[in-house]
Amino acid sequence: MKEDYYDILGISKGATAAEIKKAYRKKAVQYHPDKNPGDAKAEEMFKKAAEAYEVLSDDNKKARYDQYGHAAFDGAGGFGGGGGMNMDDIFSQFGDIFGGAFGGGGFSGFGGGGGQRRVKGSSLKIRVSLTLEEVANGVEKKIKVKRKVQASGVTYKTCSTCGGRGQVTKITNTILGRMQTAATCSSCGGAGQLIDKRPHDADAQGMVVKEETVSVKIPGGVEDGMQLKVSGKGNDAPGNGVPGDLIVAIETLEHETLKREGDNLHYDLYVSISEAVLGTSKEIDAVTGKVRIKLEPGIQSGKILRLRGKGINSINGYGAGDLLVHVNVWTPKTLNKEQKEFFEKMQDNENFIPSPEKSDKSFFEKVKDMFS
Ligand SMILES: [Zn+2]
């Protein structure tokens, strides 16, 4: 058996509209979820009171209820046939009941429904150029940013139009019942707050531009075009809002000798015929600085030397790529008489005749190896 709406609100049948409203306000405050966290019974009462008020505050529904009782709303089209109201419906009613004075101040977090809105400041975007060395190892950059911050001495007050919610709820009666629409508050533009005292150097939102140095940690392995977000280093928001983000767009600079491919790096090494024949040691560029490598006598052109872990640090933090050194033997294009005679003499020498062994893999096999 459903409880009588008048009993729920603790009023008599002859109560006036003002008395009904007053009674509901009392119950709503008494059983408000913010005051009774986790109390299921209070929530139940809170919902019942809201449902009773929904009916008794509406002349048409009240007349039907007075005549037929709960039976008036059974079946299709009736109010609360089986379920009653959900919390959002109830809170949306509050604008009517409590007016601006109560809406924002009295209750903090309206269930899932909003409460005091915290506006977020706008994002700032800056571009940062990184050398390959910085990309490979990660780097901490100090970046100068011009941010909007609240001027000193500025004060804000809660917007009375929306009660600090930043949104106004409009309820219209339609053929389908009461429809609720939310719109951005036009008085405060959605911020929920209005400027109170504003220093003369501040803009309309009470903000001034300030240059700040922001330290940004960029991990190794980033790629050109990537964006990093630094939370809270964008523009401040007015009042009790939260600052926006700083978006750091990564731009990578080409390296003179190293080419990137994923996390691997490639380096073209040129050696003379003499060096290839006699063996040598060479200093090559790596992202950690110069690295000396040894070439065995008789090294073949096209040989790829793999320096493990000397590539780019993986962005997910697991290990690093390799540095692949491609050996190119430089064939002299001009020779003097003496040199020419030497090479002519060597033409049919068995040491000069190509005789690749299995270990001298073909170019295609090497490429296959590299990507496996
Ligand atoms: Zn407002």
Automatic annotation (TrEMBL):
<dbReference type="InterPro" id="IPR001623">
    <property type="entry name" value="DnaJ_domain"/>
</dbReference>
<keyword id="KW-0235">DNA replication</keyword>
<keyword id="KW-0677">Repeat</keyword>
<keyword id="KW-0963">Cytoplasm</keyword>
<keyword id="KW-0346">Stress response</keyword>
<feature type="domain" description="J">
    <location>
        <begin position="4"/>
        <end position="69"/>
    </location>
</feature>
<dbReference type="Pfam" id="PF00684">
    <property type="entry name" value="DnaJ_CXXCXGXG"/>
</dbReference>
<dbReference type="InterPro" id="IPR002939">
    <property type="entry name" value="DnaJ_C"/>
</dbReference>
<dbReference type="InterPro" id="IPR008971">
    <property type="entry name" value="HSP40/DnaJ_pept-bd"/>
</dbReference>
<dbReference type="Pfam" id="PF00226">
    <property type="entry name" value="DnaJ"/>
</dbReference>
<feature type="binding site">
    <location>
        <position position="185"/>
    </location>
    <ligand>
        <name>Zn(2+)</name>
    </ligand>
</feature>
<dbReference type="GO" id="GO:0005737">
    <property type="term" value="C:cytoplasm"/>
</dbReference>
<dbReference type="InterPro" id="IPR018253">
    <property type="entry name" value="DnaJ_domain_CS"/>
</dbReference>
<feature type="binding site">
    <location>
        <position position="188"/>
    </location>
    <ligand>
        <name>Zn(2+)</name>
    </ligand>
</feature>
<dbReference type="GO" id="GO:0031072">
    <property type="term" value="F:heat shock protein binding"/>
</dbReference>
<keyword id="KW-0863">Zinc-finger</keyword>
<dbReference type="GO" id="GO:0006260">
    <property type="term" value="P:DNA replication"/>
</dbReference>
<dbReference type="GO" id="GO:0042026">
    <property type="term" value="P:protein refolding"/>
</dbReference>
<dbReference type="InterPro" id="IPR001305">
    <property type="entry name" value="HSP_DnaJ_Cys-rich_dom"/>
</dbReference>
<feature type="binding site">
    <location>
        <position position="162"/>
    </location>
    <ligand>
        <name>Zn(2+)</name>
    </ligand>
</feature>
<keyword id="KW-0479">Metal-binding</keyword>
<keyword id="KW-0143">Chaperone</keyword>
<keyword id="KW-0862">Zinc</keyword>
<dbReference type="GO" id="GO:0005524">
    <property type="term" value="F:ATP binding"/>
</dbReference>
<comment type="similarity">
    <text>Belongs to the DnaJ family.</text>
</comment>
<protein>
    <recommendedName>
        <fullName>Chaperone protein DnaJ</fullName>
    </recommendedName>
</protein>
<dbReference type="InterPro" id="IPR012724">
    <property type="entry name" value="DnaJ"/>
</dbReference>
<feature type="binding site">
    <location>
        <position position="159"/>
    </location>
    <ligand>
        <name>Zn(2+)</name>
    </ligand>
</feature>
<dbReference type="InterPro" id="IPR036410">
    <property type="entry name" value="HSP_DnaJ_Cys-rich_dom_sf"/>
</dbReference>
<dbReference type="InterPro" id="IPR036869">
    <property type="entry name" value="J_dom_sf"/>
</dbReference>
<comment type="subunit">
    <text>Homodimer.</text>
</comment>
<dbReference type="Pfam" id="PF01556">
    <property type="entry name" value="DnaJ_C"/>
</dbReference>
<dbReference type="GO" id="GO:0008270">
    <property type="term" value="F:zinc ion binding"/>
</dbReference>
<dbReference type="GO" id="GO:0009408">
    <property type="term" value="P:response to heat"/>
</dbReference>
<comment type="function">
    <text>Participates actively in the response to hyperosmotic and heat shock by preventing the aggregation of stress-denatured proteins and by disaggregating proteins, also in an autonomous, DnaK-independent fashion. Unfolded proteins bind initially to DnaJ; upon interaction with the DnaJ-bound protein, DnaK hydrolyzes its bound ATP, resulting in the formation of a stable complex. GrpE releases ADP from DnaK; ATP binding to DnaK triggers the release of the substrate protein, thus completing the reaction cycle.</text>
</comment>
<dbReference type="GO" id="GO:0051082">
    <property type="term" value="F:unfolded protein binding"/>
</dbReference>
